[in-house]
Amino acid sequence: MVELAVPGSLGITVAGESLVLLPDRALWWPRMSLLAIADLHLGKGDHFRRAGIALPRGGTAHDLDRLDGLLVQTRATRLLVLGDLLHAAVHDAQWRDAWIAWRAGRQALSVELVGGNHDRALTGRPGVAASLGIHLHGHALAFAPFLFVHDPAHGAQADGYRLGGHLHPVVRLPGVPRLPAFLFGETAGVLPAFTAFAGGWRVDRTSETRLFACAPDAVVDVSV
């Protein structure tokens, strides 16, 4: 296992590779200096407020601050977003301005995106993605032994252990609110939604999967 000074982190082995699960809903691949997250959903709060749904402001800034902390802790040189970096349109100035300011402070960081269903404004306009400092990989990235995707069902016929997001897995434990969770099966794994503003798909423990809950200060193995 990998020794990493990130409080509450948990090292596991997947497809023969040593990975580290971080309590703030991210996956760290030390050998490749790669930090992976899924479902950032920038601008989601603004999108809902325009629809007349009252939500507190500051969600994008909060998520970017969390992300910055993880990058400092891991010293990652690559950030890979497994889909849904956006929630809605690129022209939303509020999230865009926050992103540009954040990106300007991380010039040496490679920010890469495997396109998700909410990312059409980027995947269909590579020039816009480039202007935001984002490198596009289409809808899948083969990086042996993994196949990084957004929807874990995508690429089932391809070689490689699939790692994705999209499903927003959560787990319910006795006496505590639902917690975001990592889920690992025989051929695919799912990361929790990174944004703090996300719904969830309840995952139950089975003998065929490994399940890890993201408690506030630690990743907890809740597998059977």
TrEMBL record:
NCBIfam families: P_estr_lig_assc
The keyword S-adenosyl-L-methionine belongs to this UniProt entry's keyword annotation: no
Ranges that cross the membrane: none
Alphabetized UniProt keyword annotations: Endonuclease, Hydrolase, Ligase, Nuclease
InterPro entries assigned: Metallo-depent_PP-like, PdeM-like, Pesterase_MJ0037-like
EC number, as in UniProt: 3.1.-.-
Protein's recorded name: Ligase-associated DNA damage response endonuclease PdeM
Enzyme class: hydrolase
Organism whose genome encodes this protein: Luteimonas terrae
Chain's gene name: pdeM
Gene Ontology molecular function terms on file: endonuclease activity; hydrolase activity; ligase activity
Top-level taxon of origin: Bacteria
Lineage: Bacteria, Pseudomonadati, Pseudomonadota, Gammaproteobacteria, Lysobacterales
Gene3D superfamilies reported for this sequence: 3.60.21.10
